[in-house]
From TrEMBL:
Protein name in the entry: Adenosine deaminase
Top-level taxonomy: Bacteria, Bacillati, Actinomycetota, Actinomycetes, Propionibacteriales
A GO cellular component annotation in the UniProt record: cytosol
Organism: Nocardioides lianchengensis
Task of the protein: Catalyzes the hydrolytic deamination of adenosine and 2-deoxyadenosine.
SUPFAM superfamilies tied to this protein: Metallo-dependent hydrolases
Residue intervals passing through the bilayer: none
Catalytic residue positions: 213
Length: 371
């Protein structure tokens, strides 16, 4: 997991910015612009810990940088509070797409919990419609350079997962690509929502499960073997089932071997994983070893506001920590696109028409020394 063997590749942050990116794990309520929070808070009368954009952004970052997932989740009290009306949700969704497109993201699945946005009187259906309106406006504003889909999330400590699963099915041909559960893992195993997962499987639908972030291997095992997750949200603790011997040889436990053999995608979020204590540092993040072992690793932002991050920042951190080059970034990106909850022909089209040509051009620039 160490970056000791990393060597400078000459890659610049500008190259990383220009590279096409695919994002599978990004929370809508974790990516607001600080000024937008201030504007929306003024509209709804919500009190904030700071009323100037830079100061507020700093507050979110410092509050989230605690090493505790539970404290990290507390920061969402403010973002969710200002997302309780249709216009507010639509604005946040539009700006989300605009920000991702500006960061070079060509495909994104953005998740949120509809049940957390009904305090102002909206129905669950109206929440999804407001998000879709914002996504459509954002895609239009970005000139169609990005494809965005919704992931509907149920909170694992609540009892509305079946309702949200049915909502995801009702909207799956109108912008919703799949389902997720999120929230504190300890004490709230994914098996509490088994009926929702079984329903989604009967409906031939896709779902991911937050697992293996704050909690260990049992969370991952349940998500896969009991609930049938297509992907693992984070999955960092799969490293606990991998042994690196003194001679450098690596031994995979049965769960880790299954995850790798089945090509189960890991939605890893390096900056967030460090903030919540799931990893000690970027340089020691399990992603380094997991990539070497050819797990289906993807790179994601999780919560751009709380982590003060972007896809460019996440990948640039990995470049610096592990010496990754253009082809490594392409590997992460193609991994993510292969793992998206998008029809196969649409995934293939983005890989062949957008991703591979762009990376080929970047690689050619590197070879010519024009980076």
């Amino acid at each position: 997991m160490s970056s000791a063997a990393a060597e400078p590749t000459g890659l610049t942050r500008d190259t990383v910015l220009r590279a096409p990116k695919v994002l599978l794990h990004d929370h809508l309520d974790g990516g607001l612009r600080p000024q937008t929070i201030i504007d929306l808070a003024a509209d709804c009368g919500h009190e904030l810990p700071a009323t100037e954009a830079v100061a507020l952004g700093t507050w979110f970052a410092e509050s989230a940088d605690s090493g505790s997932l539970e404290r990290y989740l507390e920061t969402f009290d403010h973002t969710v509070a200002v997302m309780q009306s249709g216009p507010a949700i639509t604005r946040v969704a539009r700006e989300c797409v605009e920000d991702l497109a500006a960061d070079g993201v060509v495909y994104a699945e953005v998740r949120y919990a509809p049940e957390q946005h009904v305090e102002g009187g909206l129905t669950l259906d109206e929440v999804v419609a407001a998000v879709q309106e914002g996504f459509d406006a954002g895609v239009a504003s970005a000139g169609g350079r990005i494809v965005v889909r919704q992931l509907l999330t149920a909170m694992r400590h609540q009892a509305r997962s079946m309702e949200i699963a049915e909502l995801a099915i009702a909207w799956r041909d109108r912008g919703v690509a799949g389902f997720d559960i999120a929230g504190a893992e300890a004490g709230y195993p994914p098996t509490r929502h088994l009926d929702a997962f079984e329903y989604l499987q009967r409906e031939n639908s896709h779902f991911t499960i937050h697992a293996g972030e704050a909690f260990g291997l049992p969370s991952i095992w349940q998500a896969i073997q009991w609930c049938g997750a297509d992907r693992l949200g984070h999955g960092v603790r799969i490293i606990d089932d991998i042994t690196v011997h003194d001679d450098g040889s690596v031994e995979l436990g049965r769960l880790a071997a299954y995850v790798r053999d089945q090509r189960i995608p890991l939605e890893m979020c390096p900056a967030s994983n460090v903030q919540t204590g799931a990893a000690t540092s970027i340089a020691q993040h399990p992603i380094g070893l997991l990539k070497k072992l050819r797990f289906r690793v993807t790179v994601n932002t999780d919560n751009r506001l709380m982590s003060q991050t972007s896809m460019t920042a996440e990948l640039w951190d990995l470049v610096q920590a592990f010496g990754y080059g253009v082809r490594d970034l392409e590997w992460f990106t193609v991994n993510a696109m292969k793992s998206a909850f998008l029809p196969f022909d649409e995934r293939l089209d983005l890989i062949e028409r957008v991703i591979k040509p762009a990376y080929a051009e970047l690689a050619a620039e590197r070879s010519a020394g024009r980076d």
